[in-house]
Amino acid sequence: MAKPIMAKATAVWLVDNTTISFKQIADFVGMHELEVQGIADGDVATGVKGFDPIANNQLVQEEIDSAQDNPMHKLALKYNAAAQGEEKRRGPRYTPLSKRQDRPASILWLVKFHPELTDGQVGKLVGTTKPTIQAIRERTHWNIGNIQPIDPVALGLCKQSELDAAVQKAAAKKAADGEVMNDDERRKLVSTEQSLGMEAEPKIPTAIEGLETFSLGDAPVEPEEETGDIHDAESFFNIKSDDDAEDSDEK
Questions:
Q1: Terminus-to-terminus CA distance in the chain, angstroms?
Q2: Per-chain mean pLDDT for the chain
Q3: CB within 10 Å: which end of the chain, N or C, has fewer?
Q4: pLDDT single digits (tens) 183-231
Q5: How confident is the model at residue 47, as a pLDDT?
Q6: Considering only CA atoms, which of 110, 115, 107 is closest in space to residue 133?
Q7: Which is higher by pLDDT, 40 or 240?
Q8: What is the chain's alpha carbon radius of gyration, rounded to the nearest angstrom?
Q9: Are the C-beta atoms of 74 and 3 separated by less than 8 Å?
């Protein structure tokens, strides 16, 4: 579904000038309902000037009236023939200037924790080029010593849903190729929600690998050797008493 331009400013205008519910506004502008509620509370988009969608030919008044009368009504953008197919335009993802310096860190995170992703998938996620990705994979990047891996979702370079979709696609390709995945790879190739819901598989410490067939619990108990009754230290160390010493001298 197409979204309006200047979505946050449009949401500010709708909150200030209509009685449309937060859910309806959120669905229309592509934001979370709590973000729209934050706009109403003054916690989000402070200082953002409202953008009138009617004056800018994105909505008609009838749509707003219908949404105010019916909380279940979904706002729809005004039809614009010139805008058809715009969402299908292909090209590199635009990355704001303020975040471009974070791209190497996100690339390193992706190639480290999701090596199954192709260079094309990584490039689409963070908006970079294949030579840059290859340089970081091969650790030949000019600044590789100072780059720390950071989740691109945390940096705001991509959405969690986009990352999950990419790893799911990689998982399907790997399964189609018939490759066997270990436990770590299996967790990397699923979404965050699925990975958190998985049961942990027991792992054997490296120090005792190869001894997994032995069991301490079922080992037979060997009977202790009889050492006789030991009553005191003299008998244990075979120390002779004075009476025994005198008897030996008389002999």
A1: 116
A2: 76
A3: C
A4: 565 555 555 555 555 565 555 555 555 555 555 555 555 555 555 555 5
A5: 82
A6: 107
A7: 40
A8: 35
A9: no
Alpha carbon separation from 41 to 7, 68, 213 (Å, rounded): 18, 20, 63
Q: For the whole model, what pTM was predicted?
A: 0.42
> What dihedral angle (degrees, nearest 10) is formed by the CA atoms of 160, 166, 170, 176?
110
Reported as half-sphere exposure (CB side, CA atoms, 13 A), residue 209 has a value of 4
Residue 34, amino acid: L
Range 221-233 burial, b when 16+ CB lie within 10 A, else e: eeeeeeeeeeeee
**What tokens were used for 172?**
């399907």
pLDDT at residue 81, rounded to an integer: 56
Cα separation, 103 vs 107, in Å, equals 6
